[in-house]
Amino acid sequence: MCPETTLTKDVIWYIDGKKYVIQNVPYSKLQAEEEEYFDMDVSVRLTILRDLMYMNDIPLIIDYKLVEGFEI
Description:
Distance between the termini: 29 Å
Oligomer: single chain
């Protein structure tokens, strides 16, 4: 099994001419393959946050650290 490193990065979408940003999103990287992936819970939270941003229910820029402990 290849060692795994957990890092953070900003996830950005451009939808209908608007920029949506979620900062400090944790992701893992497999060292041998240089492949990046999100944990299942992170992926679900990203989808929820993106949808809330798109509906103008939350700001267009948000720090993931504010919601990482929320139950989904």
